[in-house]
Amino acid sequence: MNDVRSELVSDPVSQPGSVAAASSDLAELDAAIPHCTACPRLVEWRERVAREKRAAFRDQGYWGRPVPGFGPHDASIAVVGLAPAAHGANRTGRMFTGDRSGEVLYRALYDVGLASHPRSESLGDDLTLRSTRITAPVHCAPPANKPTPGERDTCGSWLTRELELLRPTLRVVVVLGAFGWQSLLPIPDSAGWRVPRPRPKFGHDAHVRLPATDDGADLHLLGCYHVSQRNTQTGLLTPEMLRGVLHHAKELAGLGDS
């Protein structure tokens, strides 16, 4: 195990399952994720985007690597999306940062008291999240925003370990979109919660309580339409709807008003 950990920062990670399992805390996990090279199609795409860039960002350096989760290591709420955007998080290195989806999400988090600022600009800003961590089932930007099932499953070991490490404090997971919902459902059984059978279906405002299988607290899953530009521009997801789900998450997590 120590041999694996010593390679987290310096060497490429071709077997995320073993490295994720060997991470003893979220700091180690977050340090390992950017070095993952397990999915050749995603590696080629994220690096090509980082070289070619979008014209509006021509003078900026791109992150061009897998993007780790963002937020405190004792979070009681997790927000799970889909994957980094090619010119958003793949450029900035922070989940939901640098694109319009992120603008909607961070504004809502700020409005309900879960973010210190209404905008997430870059890794160098002073934004902090309150009791909330943002992550995804796939950590690399995928072509056309569509990971394959194999890529989702390969990357799933990172999310599994992330939830295991958050187990002592995690009370609520807000899942943005059906892809994240389906990606997440196999995980809680290994992290201390029991998923009902048949598996619950995704829907906006869906709420499922997962009973604990250990001495810890139960986990609440909340569904929310994804904050994609298409959903927000068409009105499928409004700021009020998003704030409503986040307020519900705060209540279930036992967080007071702020």
Automatic annotation (TrEMBL):
**Any signal peptide, and if so, which residues?**
none
Which CDD domains does the UniProt record give? Answer: UDG-F5_TTUDGB_like
Per the record, the domain of life is Bacteria
Keyword entries, A-Z = 4Fe-4S, DNA damage, DNA repair, Hydrolase, Iron, Iron-sulfur, Metal-binding
Residue ranges of every copy of the Uracil-DNA glycosylase-like domain listed in the record = 68-246
Q: Which Gene3D superfamilies did the record assign?
A: Uracil-DNA glycosylase-like domain
- GO terms for biological process, alphabetical: base-excision repair
Instruction: Cite the GO molecular-function annotations of the record.
Output: 4 iron, 4 sulfur cluster binding; DNA-deoxyinosine glycosylase activity; metal ion binding; uracil DNA N-glycosylase activity
Q: Give the family this protein belongs to, as stated in its UniProt record.
A: Belongs to the uracil-DNA glycosylase (UDG) superfamily. Type 5 (UDGb) family.
State the PANTHER family in the record: TYPE-5 URACIL-DNA GLYCOSYLASE (PTHR33693)
Question: What is the name listed in the Swiss-Prot or TrEMBL entry for this protein?
Answer: Type-5 uracil-DNA glycosylase
Q: Which organism is it from?
A: Halosaccharopolyspora lacisalsi
